[in-house]
Design brief:
The structure is a homodimer. Chain A is an alpha+beta fold and about 80 residues long. Chain A is built from two helices and three strands.
């Protein structure tokens, strides 16, 4: 089974990397972009077909390793 | 208008970062994960409401800055 975990900065948390990308795009004359925020994704291949169990396992992975839940949100997409 | 750009490694391209995460998760006794591949997302706020124009602008941004199209694929989601 395939799953995708998306980790993004919480709103309000400064994102200097996103700001740098914004500036670089403006430098390339690609305009009309109001803001850029960068996040991470993890494409994960999971054993078994039990969606609920997979979601629990992925939530544990997020809480313990993939996301810093003080400043980041995570979303789990399965299927 | 909000858009999300997802940049992932092409299949066949080695992902040592993903492998390291896989190993770390195994070390935390979170098992049943067959493979992990890491990618990037960009949450972008765009001026205007013209979806086709926004998609063109984002494709240009991907080709010129956000993705290395030799080893990475990109996907644009608008709306």
């Amino acid at each position: 089974m395939k799953a995708r975990v998306i980790v993004t900065l919480k709103s309000g948390v400064l994102d200097p990397q996103g700001k740098a990308i914004e500036g670089a795009l403006r430098g390339l004359a690609i305009d009309g972009l109001k803001s850029v925020r960068q996040g991470k994704i993890f494409d994960i291949e999971i054993d078994g077909e039990d969606h609920a169990a997979a979601r629990r396992r992925l939530a544990e992975a997020c809480e313990r390793l993939l996301a810093n839940t003080i400043v980041e949100n995570y979303a789990i997409e399965i299927g």
